[in-house]
Protein 1
Amino acid sequence: MSVLTKSKKEVVKSFAQGPKDTGSVEVQCAVITKQINNLTEHLKSHKNDFSSKRGLLILVGKRRSLLDYLKSKSEARYEALIKKLEIRK
């Protein structure tokens, strides 16, 4: 499952740091989080879809590595991002 183009553009627009920003860590994490949420909803109704489950685990690992990188570079940006994405408690 991929994120629809329209919803992806909305996510990019809300997390971008500039008008042409599509590749910053914040934008990438936001897009991956959107994909993770979509896959999680899919897996609630299709429990035995193992290929989607594998894709979900890959995305979670990718997001984790991006967040680790951001935390090593800027603790304040990391804290702001996890609060905005609501991925930690």
Note: The chain has four helices and no strands.
Protein 2
Amino acid sequence: MVNDIKYLLSLLGVPYIDSPSEAEAQCAALVKSGKAYAVASEDMDSLAFGAPLLLRGFGSKREPLVELNLDDILQTLEMTHHEFVAPGIMRGGEYASGIEGIGFHTAFRMIKQMRTIEKVLAFIEAKGDTTKFRVPDFYPYIEARQVFLQPEIDENVTFHWGKSDAQSIFDFLVRQKGFSTKRVEIGL
């Protein structure tokens, strides 16, 4: 399906990017470099990857679009970007298992108070109370933090818009993919 979408975009003359890692990281980099205005996503990881501006709500017909400005959020929370990513890492996600017994609100409160994951871990270890909080044996929080703070991105992205090819689009959608002729003609 992804290859079909890429092919259709090329037939439409629309540029696309193959991100070397996380799409949210690449999108955040495009906004930071001025090549895009904002990231449009429902995924809050976009902010963790440093997207200066995130637009949410494109999937809702009833709810308005929401614009989230990372600098405003950091200022309101009185946090650095480094501190901002820490609660998500402590809670756990796709890059590292979380600390058992710590949800997002507890992680947020601990980071506000102690400022780093390292200090939180030292606090948990000093307390010696493994019934309340349990740090996984393998806890790659440093690597998880690097994923957000220094993600793998393509810094040399350029956009080249092409011309659309209506006949090839028609052939692809109708003859190869079985879309209705009328629907494609209306769309074209």
Note: The mean pLDDT is 94.
